Amino acid sequence: MKVLVVDDEADVQPLFTQRFRKEIKNGEIEFSFALSGEEALSYLHQHDSEIVLILSDINMPGMSGLDLLKQIRQEHDSAPPYVMMITAYGDEENHNQAMQNGANDFLTKPVDFNSLKEKLKRFE
């Protein structure tokens, strides 16, 4: 499974790599990382059919995760990728906006990696 993680915090990449090292080593999951919504869209245009799941932070400078989500849903109307939004704010407004814009799931920071791994088992 190919996963694109979109977060403006650079320390997210080593965190995911460390938490999923067994799954990565076994070839069960492959991560790609983007530091902005714009970078994520560029990546998706180049690797459109490869990505199964997108994990995107909501609060990022420039293009927010919600704006990214809208773009993804506009451009990928057939077989769109599964999108989980991630935010440090568990407020109802962000949750409602994400779900109205086509998010499939919603996670709060700090990410509970055990819970995330359980959710990812749906894709195996």
SSE blueprint and pairings:
Layout: E1 2-6, H1 12-19, H2 21-25, E2 30-34, H3 37-46, E3 53-57, H4 65-75, E4 82-87, H5 92-100, E5 105-108, H6 113-120
Helix pairs in contact: 3-4
For this structure, the quaternary state is single chain
As laid out across the biggest beta sheet, the strand order is 2-1-3-4-5
How many strands appear in the DSSP assignment? Answer: 5
Distance between the termini: 8 Å
SSE succession: EHHEHEHEHEH
Mean pLDDT metric: 90
Number of helices: 6
Shape: globular
Tell me the major beta sheet. 5 strands, parallel
Hey, roughly how much beta strand do the residues contain? 15-25%
Q: C-alpha Rg, in Å?
A: 13 Å
Task: Identify low-pLDDT runs.
Answer: none
Helix content: 40-55%
Which structural class best describes the helix and strand composition? alpha/beta
Feature tags:
single chain; 124 residues; 5 strands; 20% strand; five-stranded parallel β-sheet; alpha/beta
Description:
The protein is of the alpha/beta class and 124 residues long. 41% of the residues lie in helices and 20% in strands. The protein has six helices and five strands, in the order βααβαβαβαβα. Helix 3 (37-46) runs parallel beside helix 4. The chain starts with a strand and ends with a helix.
